[in-house]
Amino acid sequence: MNMNNLSFFLHLNKFGLKVKFMDKVKVIFEPQKVVLVGSSRIREKVGMASPQLFRNVVYNMRKLFRGKTYVLDVDGKAGYNKLSKLPKIPELAVIMLPPKQSIEQAEKCAKIGVKALAMITGGYDDEQRQQLLKLKEEYGVRILGPNTIMGVINTTNGLNTTFERNVMPKKGKIAFIPQSGGVGACLLDWACFYSIGVSKFAFVGDKIDVDDVDLLRYFGNDKNTKVICIYMEGIKNGRKFIEEARKIVKKKPILALKGGITQESAKRAKSHTASIAGSDEIFDAAFKKAGIIRVEDIEELMNAAVALSKQPPMRGDNVAIVSNVGGPAILAADTVVRNNLQLASLSEKTKKKIESSYPGVDATNPIDMIADARAERYSRVLELVLADKNVDGVLIINMLKSCFFEPEDAEVIPETAAKYPKKPVVDVPAGGEDFTFVYKVLGNTDIPLYNLPEKAVKALKILRTYGKIIEKH
Q: Does the N-terminal peptide bond of residue 407 adopt cis geometry, omega within 30 degrees of 0?
């Protein structure tokens, strides 16, 4: 073989090894067989390892996971007590022991051919982290964590390594990459409470191996994921992160919530998940360069994710407001302007059609359809507004109290909006109880709902921001 052929062969071999290496990240979410490694006796004085955690993860996996679940109890009281006794080699091992015992079991797993490890517990020192990395180098095993706390969720195959019994979000299109178990738990609880559709969760913990870049690459190619949400306190390889994100945002949006933005909290973040926090200005510039949409808090992250998962990007700045009350519509209009969007100037043709159909209604944007508006009026006005070429997106307000509107009237909103799939529509049943009533009707549709006009405007702003990112990238 001449040198040119040899170089080509080595190039192909290197590429093949890279593909196989990346496939092991996929195994973390899509294994056929999983072994849960824990103890029915060991309880850390300070730490997560405990029989209770072990039992609850076993409970969730046996109940929810549609693959094969093996249980390995190192103290021999439940399931298998040795990996050698398993009938088949699992692709994924979920390890829930103190650091010393976890490393011992991780090595045994790697030696028998387990492809990926999810290390649930924390408390690893630098030497112990290096021991885990040596396993990766020697055996090619991929490692999620340590300190993931709750590991992974895949709503498609029922994979759920969390230790809260029966906590499983509804199947959907939003993927989450929380670096903090606590922030991830909050997002998970929110998703479950409001029935928000989730594709996958990856609680990344200390990120000694599998990191944001690996997960971005996986979610970027995941057909079940439409929106990617990240909570991060730090990052290992900023350049690769930006490069990967710039590829992905062309086809699906990425939202980021950054923790440790002040000097004081950055110090805490470093000890929390072994993060390199860095300057907030640097992160902000990196996000903008990558086309990542930055949010300020957990609620904004969830609200934006729901909007992006259900509605198209907004291709212009012009917003129309359709409401059955005046005051909230005016507040919404103020927020539109404050968010650097514009109130759409409806065409004279649209105004005449609305006003001739409903005498007494002033079709100036924001449109107050008056408190007696029911389904027919909402449907007719919404369709006329969406058909107007001067309108890029619509915010609907439908209050129940002090109005004739009934929850079932809301059914016409997704029906009408579906006729104009390129223009986003968001809905505001303002308040608490009113929101709950309408949410029961529209919660499972493609219409995002918000309990205040200001939140809905911010959702439209996010949709407009993503529209600009697509145009730019």
A: no
| Domain 313-472 CATH assignment equals 3.20.20.210 | no
R_g over Cα of the chain: 25
- Is the overall model pTM greater than 0.85, yes or no? yes
- Sequence length of the chain is 473
227 and 174 Cβ atoms separated by less than 8 Å: yes
Residue 17: Cβ within 10 Å count = 11
CATH of 169-310, one of 3.30.70.100, 3.90.480.20, 3.20.20.150, 3.40.50.261: 3.40.50.261
Contact by Cβ (8 Å): 330, 457: no
Tell me the three-class secondary structure of 408-429, residue by residue. HHHHHHHHHHCCCCCCCEEEEC
Strand runs labelled E in 145-302: 152-154, 159-160, 171-178, 198-202, 227-232, 254-258, 293-295
| Fold classification of 22-164 (topology level) | Rossmann fold (3.40.50)
Please state, in angstroms and rounded to a whole number, the distance separating the CA atoms of residues 257 and 462.
Answer: 14
pLDDT tens-digit series, residues 224-267: 999 999 999 988 888 999 999 999 999 999 999 999 886 655 55
Residue ranges of domains in the chain: 22-164, 169-310, 313-472
